[in-house]
Amino acid sequence: MSFAAFRASLRKAPFSPPRAARVVRTPSGAFRRYSTEVPKKSNTALFAGLGAAAVGGIAIYVYASDSNSAKEAGTAVKSGVQVAKSAAHFTPTKDDYQKVYNKIADIMEEAADKNYDDGSYGPVLVRLAWHASGTYDKETGTGGSNYATMRFEPEALHGANNGLHVARGIMEGIHEQFPWISYGDLWTLGGVCAIQEMGGPKIPWRPGRIDGFAPQATPDGRLPDGAQGAQHLRNVFYRMGFNDQEIVALSGAHALGRCHRDRSGFEGPWTFSPVTVSNEYYRLLLEEKWVWRKWDGPKQLQDKTTRSLMMLPSDYALTQDKAFRKWVEAYAKDQDVWFKDFSNVISHLFELGVPEAQFVASEGWIMKGTDEQ
Q1: TM spans, by residue (predicted)?
Q2: Smallest Cα–Cα separation from 73: which of 211, 218, 208?
């Protein structure tokens, strides 16, 4: 089919109306290690109609604008696949999304074989979901996870997104196996999977995001800058609609992963267990003695005892601001309290920018972990 014919077919497409290590035995009998030890009412029919109408509408928009972007054209083709499947009454069920979740969990393990970071792709998948969602601006209604615009330049090249090509590449491979899922749904489901498989709380999640195009990408500067302090954090997170307690709860995701000199400029892990979701981030913030690192990189702190951990200025600011510190203390004291608050707030983060009418369920689904299947 010619490009012009495809373009015409899209316009004519019929649309419906609008803590400790967890070792788990896999089915094959092998053992799967997901985390390191910590020291010391569904309406899936609506999805078919709304998904087809919304995605198809965007496809028409991009062709009408005569975009010459090859990536946008490729996305339009994939969006056309989504339209066709919706028109053919293909309605993904929760079980279909569970299969995607399981594939993500399997691929997380491949990092060990490839000597990636601390042996898991989990932290970088959480970061992808976080950065794809955290661009939301409540005043303009732009940004957020709905259009997955980090696929396009210049957003893909924003400084805060350095290194996320790794996560996007992983997810592209999964998308090839499940082409019916939107990138926004895939990326956020990846974040949910990573958190749960690394020992974290259950995260309510529901599908309904649609693929967008480069013109919908957000400007640089919407994500937090680790070199800044408390007021910067408030400026960024208040713009998304979060309060002080939620800012501190979300910051606990720094229990995962590490900084890289060739990406952010900073270097090192926040905790001794960077592939485990725990409240260690808060405990270490309060109990360790933090000193400024003497090196040729950007300003960051290191623990005085081992000099192997690091904190960013934005992390340290949580202990210096009275309103923030009380929540650091609460979460350091009780991991269950943090798990509950973190689950609620990151679920909300992952839904930023998505119109309620697009979701296929009124409440989030709880996806089963691989140890429950």
Answers
A1: 45-64
A2: 211
22: in domain: no
Closest to 357 in 3D by CA, of 47, 67, 105: 47
260 is catalytic: no
Angle (nearest 5°) at CA 218 between 213 and 219:
135
Q: How many domains does the chain have?
A: 2
Does 265 lie in the same domain as 209?
A: no
Indicate whether 270 belongs to any domain. Answer: yes
| 167 in the same domain as 236 | no
Count of C-beta atoms within a 10 Å radius of residue 140: 9
Structure-token pair, residue 139: 């005043």
Q: What burial letters (b/e) apply to 232-249, b meaning 16+ CB within 10 Å?
A: bbbebbebbebebbbbbb
Residues 205 and 352 in one domain: yes
311-337 confidence digits (pLDDT tens): 999 999 999 999 999 999 999 999 999
8 domain residue, yes or no = no
30-51 pLDDT, tens per residue? 334 444 445 543 444 444 444 4
Same domain as 248, residue 160: no
User: Could you give the C-alpha distances from 67 to 29, 41, 59, 104, in angstroms and in order?
Assistant: 51, 39, 11, 33
Distant-in-sequence, close-in-space partners of 120: CB < 8 Å, separation ≥ 6: 34, 108, 109, 111, 112, 198, 275
Single-letter code of the amino acid located at 17: P
> Which domain covers residue 273, as residue numbers?
230-345
The phi-psi region of residue 66 (left if phi > 0; otherwise alpha if psi is between -120 and 50; otherwise beta) is left
Identified catalytic residue from 180, 270, 290, 338 = 270
Position 7 in a domain: no
Which two three-digit tokens encode residue 57? 């509408």
| One domain for residues 212 and 81 | yes
Task: Give me the torsion for CA of 89, 94, 97, 101, rounded to 10°.
Answer: -170
Residues 143 and 193 placed together within one structural domain of the fold:
yes
232 is catalytic: no
Structural contact between residues 31 and 23, judged by C-beta atoms closer than 8 angstroms: yes
Tell me which of 130, 131, 158, 205 is the catalytic residue: 131
Residue 357 in contact with residue 50, Cβ under 8 Å? yes
Percent of the chain with pLDDT over 70: 76
